[in-house]
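TICKET #2291
ISSUE: user wants both folds in one file
ATTACHMENT 1:
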Amino acid sequence: MAAVTSTIVMPISVMPTNVLFTQNQWQINTTAVCVATTENNTGTWIVTEQTPFHPVSHIWPDHPADRGDLIYQTKHYSVADCVVGAIEIATQQLYIASDIPVKRDTEGWVFVVAHYIALPLVIVAGEEVTLAVDKVYQQGLSRGHSGGHLSSLALNKVLHADFWRKDPSRRDELGNYDFHSYAQEKSLVSENCSIDHYRLGKTLRKRGLNSAEMVANLAEITLRMNQQLAQWLQLATPIVMRREGDTLTDSRYWQCDLGPEGVIEIPCGGTHATSLAEYRALTIEFEIISDQELVMITTAIVA
């Protein structure tokens, strides 16, 4: 479903989509600003002025698209996919996901959220539709994503003093050596879960990581991480999404007060839990794929 759309109707001015998925809004009435039909005429992409749907990113697709319905003239249509799109103003052409040929903030382009309905649907641009997100599913993803941030911080903290033989220079938001950003190859968020894939290659060893020792001591590392996560969760402090604007392309930051370690802030465009009190526990386990591949699984147990 990443093909460039073939037709587009856009009689009103198009602006970057205003996003509401960081503001705990799950159903809104909004205006359709453009409607496009796929080349094989089997589905329709719909862009609206604002949306509570979180789209999957075409750059780092770790956070899945939200689920839910588009309601038009009392009929409910399942949103089969939700992705980042970009509209070239001069040609009024909508590009979808991996077919987007420009970076965000390129002059003459606007970035939007595109909702996919898996059938031909005639909506006149300018008409009102209702967008309703599956709240339970979105909140499950949100807990998984926030849990992933917390576990990466805990991992960096546990490794900092005992598993580096020299300073690799890059540090995380808590001031610890940033193993997570150095080693992470991919990640995947799901309901109440986050999975991170790490590569323990030659470059990381040259930076100073004692990777063989790390792998040999994963049981101890896991225990210490779980203890650290339990301490943070006891704080029950709010999780805040700081926004620099309301549009899809405006920067957003995950912010959490970790008590004596201070308020930390991580750039992130996903949806997130609203408080550490949402968790009864966060647990970590590791899977060793090879001597150079390691997977960390973070599981959220709901309060």
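ATTACHMENT 2:
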Amino acid sequence: MAGEPQIHCVNPADAAPPGGHYSHAVTAGGFVFISGQLPVRPCGTHAPEADFTTQANQALANLFAALAAAGASRQAIVKVTVYVTDIADWPVFNALYAQAMGEHRPARTVVPVPVLHYGYRIEIDAIALSR
């Protein structure tokens, strides 16, 4: 229909399928909106008992997989929100994030939360520019 917004839902082949009624990413209006990415392994198995570094690296990998499937790069990220269940993990995440992002420094927010799904310690969402 003419005038309808162009919205495209994206679920990367190299990531676990969404665990609910959502898409890993949606492109609309020149942006890519990445849903909250938990540290779920690409095969769909869970490991909430994994150490924080392992969880953070998997959540970042899931975020980057959704971004790539939407046709965008890390350098296109404009805003990141990170949810952590223990603010004491923030310095570890910050170091991992800095290594993963390199010189690119999008806007970022950290939100301490009491609990995350499946007992995970971190979840990450983002907004990026689409091509």
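RESOLUTION: both attachments delivered.
EXTRA DETAIL ON ATTACHMENT 2: The first strand starts at residue 7 and ends at 10.
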